[in-house]
Amino acid sequence: MLLTYSFAMQLQDLPKAMRPREKLLTLGSQALTDVELLSVLLGSGLRGQSVLQLAQSLLDSFQGLAGLLYASPERLRSTKGLGGMAKRSQLLAVVELSRRTLLQQMQATDIMGHPDCVKQFLQLQLGQEPREVFGVLFLDGQNRLLRFEEMFTGTLNQTSVYPREVVKLALQLGAASVILSHNHPSGEVRPSHADNQLTLNLRNALALVDVRVLDHVIVGPGRSWSMAENSAW
Q1: Rounded to an integer, what distance in angstroms lies between the CA atom of residue 103 and that of residue 145?
Q2: Which of 134, 151, 122, 143 is closest to 211 using CA atoms?
């Protein structure tokens, strides 16, 4: 028999086995819903609002976990229930732990075998930037990450990218290949004509020093577009 509960219930009113923390420890994290996982992280609700209700309202407001975790600190600060330092710092710590975990994974393995890892890292790194930021993942001969560098920052809808600077840093790092990336603050992640032309210019410039461009990933809040995966070369 499937047990259910109302979000209006307080945690102490739930059967002990149904409380999110107890479920997490006895059944594992995969047994919990998004609301339950978030309620464990938040720890407590607000006056007149249980932690489960708060978790549900946050997921509704941010359109799911991805929207919440990729939200900017400014957006979190202005959200009811996250105005206090404790809950907001917990969420930001989870995001930073996720970013560092992905970074370590990319430094230790062939990242071309883990494209989702790359996209998740870039979403966490660039997805909520209010202006366009152009970054580059510099890779060694085994496609392991040498360094991620945010190289150019622009306006709301464009940024100036100088191929010479990308080539210069690739040579300094001894990179064998790169993955290009930038964000679209508008949320539309499909490449523009200018994006396609920029990719071609950088591929040509880097080819002169025997550095390959493996992909160009465009990100927005909770979304991404890989030119390589979509055959947009």
Answers
A1: 8
A2: 143
Measured CA to CA, the distance from residue 58 to residue 54 in angstroms comes to: 6
- Helix 34-42 / helix 20-27 crossing angle, nearest 10 deg: 110
Residue 126 vs residues 15, 46, 47, 129, 188: alpha-carbon distances, Å: 42, 31, 35, 5, 14
User: Which two structure tokens, joined as six digits, stand for 26?
Assistant: 């006895």
Give the integer Cα–Cα distance in Å for 83 and 65. 18
Which pair of structure tokens corresponds to residue 18?
């149904």
Residue 97 and residue 74 in contact, taking contact as beta carbons nearer than 8 Å: no
Note the pLDDT of residue 198: 95
Give the 3-state secondary structure of residue 162.
Answer: coil
> How much is the pLDDT for 20?
85
